[in-house]
Amino acid sequence: MSKNNMKSVKSKSGAQVAILFPGQGSQSVGMGSQLFRESPAARSIFEAADDALGFSLSSLCFSGPDEELRRTINAQPAILTVSIAAWKCAQERGLLEDALRPAFVAGHSLGEYTTLVASGVLSFTDAVRLVRERGRLMEMAGQKHPGGMVALLGLNEGMAQEVCQMTGAEIANINCSGQIVISGSQNVLSEAVCVAREKGAKRAIALEVSGAFHSSLMQWARRGLQKFITALQFHHPRIPIVANTTARPLKRAMDIKLELQDQLCRCVKWQQSIEFMRGKGVSVFIELGPGTVLSGLTQRICPGVRTLGMNDIMLMGGTVS
Q1: For residue 25, what are the contacts with CB-CB under 8 A and spacing of at least 6?
Q2: Which residue in 68, 67, 38 sits closest to 56, CA to CA?
Q3: Which domains does the chain have, with CATH numbers?
Q4: What pLDDT is recorded for position 10?
Q5: Are 221 and 138 in contact (CB under 8 A)?
Q6: Are strands 16-21 and 104-107 parallel, antiparallel or unpaired?
């Protein structure tokens, strides 16, 4: 697909574009290797990550081992790095200009940190170090207050809220209609799954995570994260960031700092975020990062919108020498 064809995805009716960045769970061994080979701009991001963290994160992305890449402390900076590498590659190829200049950026959980780099709030170096610390704190919080996450399929938000009220679980992610993720201790989740099935849940899928993310069991991590965030210089975003916890734009540095702390312990309102952007005229959603999870969710939330992914970006404009 040529750059001109890429730009043709924007309709003549004044439709807007949003960039989406994925969260933890989208990682896979080999991710980003094509970006590294074909884009000098992307390659510089991987090299910067390795320098900032003091070890070869790029090798972990490209070669694994898988069990190490899945660890929260590694998966989070790895996904952020691949996502920003894709962002830089798209910029390098002139694919996010003019008709495809984004009106909003949004990221799912970890992906919200990626938006900080894309919108100029933080430097990449600060962001990758922050995310590495976030992953470390979340792993430790999971050890201090063990728990997990379960995706409930086939229940709406109201029914999932009833399950939580009856069991003490907490809604962690509202991904789309019929896909709600809950968090809690293992005993709480076991009871919640039973109640959910009684209420008609089609499936209950335990997620491979190291703790009860986006719940009150992450309060210990929130306190540690606050100290790290306070030491960094945040700028106002150049592109509005649609917040996980409110599904509304963030426009001030101070609000972003509070959002990053709050989202550790509060629900990610992804469905509402996509609906907000669609209501503002966005009809083209570009997912930059490993996997296509957010593209699939976006199509379920707003059928008929156009979605593009990182593989599309790699096919556009030819190989960069």
Answers
A1: 75, 207, 208, 209, 293
A2: 68
A3: 3-143+214-315 (3.40.366.10), 147-206 (3.30.70.250)
A4: 46
A5: yes
A6: parallel
Please report the pLDDT score of residue 309 as a whole number. 87
The SS3 of residue 131 is helix
**pTM for the predicted model, two decimal places:** 0.93
pLDDT in the model for residue 311 = 79
Query: Which are the catalytic amino acids?
Result: 109, 214
Beta strands in 144-255 (DSSP E): 148-153, 170-176, 179-184, 203-206, 241-242, 249-250
**What is the helix (H) or strand (E) element at residue 15, kind and residue range?**
none
The Cα 306–Cα 18 span in angstroms is 11
**The pLDDT of residue 321:** 25
Q: What is the pLDDT of residue 319?
A: 34
- Which pLDDT band holds residue 14 (cuts at 50, 70, 90)? low
Phi, psi of 88 (to 5 degrees): -65, -35
Peptide bond into 65 cis (omega under 30): yes
228-242 residue pLDDT tens? 999 999 999 999 999
Phi, psi of 255 (to 5 degrees): -65, -35
> What number of other Cβ atoms are within 10 A of residue 279's Cβ?
9
